[in-house]
Amino acid sequence: MKHIDARIVRRLPAVRDSPAFELNIHFEAPAGISAILGPSGAGKTLLLNCLGGFVRPDEGRILVDDRLYFDAAANIHLAPERRRCGYIFQDHALFPHMTVRQNLRFAASSAGANRLLLHRRTNELLDTFDLALLADRKPAQLSGGQKQRAALARLLITEPRLLLLDEPSRGLDLRLRLAFWDLLRSLRERVDIPVLLVSHDIEECCELGDSIAVLEDGRLLQYAAREEVLKKPATVEVARLLGIYNIGPAEILALNPAQNRSRLRLFEQEIEGPYFPGHLIGDSGFVCLRRSEMTVLRDPREAARNRLTLRIEDVSRSPLGVRVSLEHGFSVILSEAEHAEYAGSERLTLSAPASAVAFTGA
Question: 70: how many CB neighbours lie within 10 A of its CB?
């Protein structure tokens, strides 16, 4: 199984209005897509540049499929052209003076492919990425989606050991974005190599990532399978960066491992959750409730284990529906019909299954 094992320390000095920064992470990524999520300035692109050989780390070691790319102690630093890393930059980085076919051929010849293999492989990839009719066009004559397909084809013709994608769907409209996601899904089925995908978008990470790495201030806060990250954020910082939770301070009142239950106090109300290993009764922390799992009870007196009544503070509309903002920073999205039922109400009573309750330490 091809994989990455990387420990990277890279320090950047303070310049003008930017403070000093340190990227300091250690992670192992298997074949498949690892989505790297984090805010601007978290170190996501710097991480890709260290892996691709464009930036030399100050400390650490990088192994890709047991091939040593970098070792600070041994003074080893392979140049980018020797790493066989496919890298899609935010601007796609196609040679503007070459046609699509010429871009592919140049990449293949740079990787040392023989003529017969080059010709066959070029035609295969042009067909695979639906580029055959565009093969003689230059990048300026292509749409954004066509450029991305050409960039991916050019990467794959070199048979890379590792793919690095830096916000590859940035700037695409929704239709092209969805088409590109489909393309990456099919790519994942075709190649058995690690793919690192940088994104600001949790939806893109969930759509494409087999695993999700959450990065902030140069530190890896959590790296695990997608469902584990979504169900059990490691810290409240991870939960906030994911942006899919209602979050509030809470205290554990009871724990029952035999029945996989817990009882928590949240905003002077009580809710039920699953058992939380590693925690004790009386522990304080934060409850994280996925908004998509929360429903509004039509009758506040309706029986439900997890009832939470909160005051309405604001109402706004978006393409997703009616956003109702509640006290303590909670919110819920309703359809127009649902909102009409609660028009004029001062409070809403919410419910969520115990399985949707996550708890992180303070």
Answer: 24
Q: Tell me the C-alpha distance between 324 and 336, whole Å.
A: 11
pTM: 0.84
- In the three-class reduction of DSSP (H, G, I as helix; E, B as strand; rest coil), residue 330 is classed as coil
Q: Which residues contact 304 (CB under 8 A, 6 or more apart)?
A: 297, 351
Contact by Cβ (8 Å): 233, 358: yes
Residue 7 corresponds to which tokens in the numbers above? Answer: 């420990």
| R_g over Cα of the chain | 24
The amino acid that residue 200 corresponds to is H
How many CA atoms are closer than 13 Å to the CA of 300, on its beta-carbon side?
Answer: 10
Q: Looking at the DSSP assignment, which residues form a beta bridge with residue 290?
A: 245
For 200-218, the pLDDT digits (tens) are 888 999 999 999 999 999 9
Cβ atoms of 141 and 96 within 8 Å: the answer is: no
DSSP single-letter state for residue 18: B
| 126 token code pair | 């042009």
